[in-house]
């Protein structure tokens, strides 16, 4: 979150919803996450506490004015503190329904970097182990969008930030070829 006044509050579980990916982002080289209503499913996440004066900045960050996401209030259950009414952002374009355990279609696979950032956040905030394993099983499209940012996140999650320039060569991101992926899937 860009708002430095936001504070970690708790982890929480959102029932009757699942994590899915739909709208392609050039920055991430793949679709970004959204919440999709799904019966008998649930997803875990992090609850942040922030002042209500900062809602407009958060709306801008999430693309509400650009009609990418819309805000919604949902009831989230925390492990130790009970239920809370929380603000979440859902993409305007939602994917077609699939079963909770059904495989995500190829065109909705997130990039490798986006998936790794989600998993790093889940590990950092100690989401349940079974949920982290579910996140790790999500297939990715191999895209290395914003790979340099991912390397910096990994580095500074373990060490204090420095002002030095990273000399490591960053490989060029791969291009996503949906036809090739579909053909490979059909041949299997």
From TrEMBL:
Q: Which Gene3D superfamilies match?
A: Gamma-glutamyl cyclotransferase-like (3.10.490.10)
Question: Which residues are noted in the entry as substrate-binding?
Answer: 114
What is its EC class?
A: lyase
Superkingdom, according to UniProt?
A: Eukaryota
Question: What EC designation does it have?
Answer: 4.3.2.9
A single Gene Ontology MF term assigned here is: gamma-glutamylcyclotransferase activity
Q: Which InterPro entries match?
A: G-Glutamylcylcotransferase, GGCT-like, GGCT-like_sf
Q: Coiled-coil annotation: which residues? A: none
Keyword set, alphabetical order: Lyase
Family annotation (Pfam families): AIG2_2 (PF13772)
Active site per database record: 62
Tell me what this protein is called: gamma-glutamylcyclotransferase
Q: What species does this protein belong to?
A: Euphydryas editha
């Amino acid at each position: 979150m860009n708002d430095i006044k936001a504070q970690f509050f708790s982890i929480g579980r959102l029932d009757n919803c699942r994590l899915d990916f739909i709208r392609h982002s050039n920055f991430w080289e793949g679709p970004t996450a959204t919440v999709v209503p799904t019966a008998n499913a649930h997803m875990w996440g992090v609850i942040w506490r922030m002042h209500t004066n900062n809602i407009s900045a958060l709306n801008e960050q999430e693309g509400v004015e650009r009609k990418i996401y819309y805000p919604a209030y949902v009831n989230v259950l925390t492990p130790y503190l009970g239920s809370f009414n929380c603000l979440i952002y859902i993409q305007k374009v939602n994917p077609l329904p699939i079963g909770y355990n059904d495989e995500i279609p190829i065109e909705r696979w997130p990039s490798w970097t986006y998936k790794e950032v989600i998993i790093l956040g889940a590990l950092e905030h100690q989401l349940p182990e079974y949920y982290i394993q579910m996140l790790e099983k999500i297939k990715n499209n191999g895209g290395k969008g914003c790979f340099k940012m991912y390397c910096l996140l990994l580095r500074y999650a373990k060490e204090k930030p420095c002002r030095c320039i990273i000399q490591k060569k960053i490989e060029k991101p791969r291009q996503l070829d949906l036809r090739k992926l579909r053909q490979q899937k059909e041949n299997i």
